[in-house]
Amino acid sequence: MIEEIFGISIENKELFAKALRHTSYTKEHEMDVLESYERLEFLGDAVLKLVISEILYKKYPEYQEGELTKIRSVVVSDNFLSKIACDIGLEQLVFLGTNEEKNGLRKLESICACVFEAVLGAYYTDGKFQELSVFMEELFTPYIEDIDKNFLKYNAKSVLQEYTQGLSKEIPVYEIIDETGPAHDKTFTVEVSYKGEAVAQGSGHSKKEAEQECALKACEKLGVLQCKK
Fold it and tell me: Annotated catalytic residue: which of 41, 109, 117, 191?
């Protein structure tokens, strides 16, 4: 139950049922698309950015705008939100269509991230913004601290690009060289090249994840050990 995960009581239960409905579910059950999570996701995206911005603003009073923005960009990304949604078990509550369920889309990055944002929008609409802010600060702070300490790991693509452009104005080129596994649980292998020469390879369960892993290995190989946020 959402209340057990977030520790915040719910007034409008139908609002939260809507926050968990994927469009495949509403279509299969002949419901209006407005009964899916899409509108609440739109609202929740704004709630997420506001709360995360406030957390960062208070936590790092010495950081400039650019430094705060770069940390926030990692925190609010689909890849990161999906990880958090799975960490707290939110993805298990999503209502999917039969085919989508069979194809293993429950843990799809985009779906998990969208549902997380939709639930934030639902809590905001339900008048629980203050309680939600407290919960989010407790939930996100350890992740934020890890991002701050290990920024290269989370933003290696940008770091690598800044580095290569500083050398020659050229940017790294990523190419998928292998895909393995079933459609719902693929593993992608990516290779990054610079000035026409392969630098490193990386793997992941999404193209973005594989590219980040690949970029991190390239940074390590090229000696880019630190970066400025």
Answer: 117
What tokens were used for 205? 């369960």
Nearest by Cα to 91 from 119, 66, 64: 119
Per the annotation, the verdict on 45 as an active-site residue is yes
Domain with CATH 3.30.160.20 in the chain: 156-222
Q: In CATH, what class is 156-222?
A: alpha beta
pLDDT digits (tens, 9 = 90+) for 55-112: 999 999 999 999 999 899 999 998 899 999 999 999 999 999 999 888 878 888 889 9
Report the predicted TM-score, pTM, of the whole model to 2 decimal places: 0.79
The CATH class given to the 2-149 domain equals mainly alpha
Is 185 annotated in the active site?
no
Q: Which of these, 30, 37, 54, 41, lies nearest to 81 by C-alpha position?
A: 41
Could you give the residue range(s) of every CATH 1.10.1520.10 domain in the chain?
2-149
